[in-house]
């Protein structure tokens, strides 16, 4: 039996990725909901047309929210009261669920999933990874899934939908990892955005100073930096099978003492800090 899926924001960035993977799958009847002019153009380029929102929601077995985090609260307030009992609301990011900006109905299921993106070290060919940074088109990836509210039996239904949204015959999902919504928020934004992305931005800022202020040729700088980032990640995460030299370990310890405040991990990973972060992400008034 087909699952009728209303894809909200079907012509947006995330929506188009899902549209491309879901179009033509016999297990689904896709209902593409889009109101923006660029989004409608994106659907038209694929030979698809939008379904009016009210019509799509009246039919839907699942509603996928491929929408900006800051809009989910407002839009979910409008659409959730109109849904039939038993419908599954699928979030593509933990922020809205963790910030509790969506109205909760006991007769609906709330499922959250998120792509992990192609891993840095994997078996995909370089061309696949280079031309599919996000994943799910040519490059394989893991996903994380959480049943936020609803009967346990609905987990398998949501997970299969996630497998199909974030993979295809060329690059199926490597593995689905079941976690809680709170654990997903610890991973993103806290670990991979609040901390990791900030550190990577800092690396780029220092790299630019090395080139522009210190005069090191950009090509030489990038060759040294990119090569060392790869081997350093492999060493730190235990993939390389060997350790840093004594001199490198001394430089690392001294740098950590200078660069990091003593309670830096608590500042990133405290649940209060994470809740404040997701509130900022989902609060349209802050934009």
Structure explained in plain terms:
With 287 residues, the protein is an alpha/beta fold. It has 2 domains: 3-179, Rossmann fold; 185-286. Helix content is 49%, strand content 14%. It is built from 12 helices and 7 strands. The mean pLDDT is 95.
Q: Which terms would index this structure?
A:
287 residues, single chain, Rossmann fold, seven-stranded mixed sheet
Give unreliable regions as ranges: none
CATH secondary-structure class of the largest domain: Alpha Beta
Q: How many distinct folded domains?
A: 2
Q: How would you state the average pLDDT, rounded?
A: 95
**Gap between N and C termini, in Å?**
42 Å
β-strand number: 7
CATH architecture of the largest domain: 3-Layer(aba) Sandwich
Q: Which oligomeric form is depicted?
A: single chain
A few lines on this structure:
By secondary structure, this protein is α/β, with parallel strands linked by helices.
Write the layout of secondary structure elements.
Layout lengths: L2 E6 L4 H10 L5 E6 L3 H9 L7 H7 L2 E4 L3 H11 L8 E4 L3 H4 L10 E9 L8 H5 L11 E8 L4 H12 L10 E3 L2 H32 L5 H19 L9 H14 L4 H6 L1 H12 L5
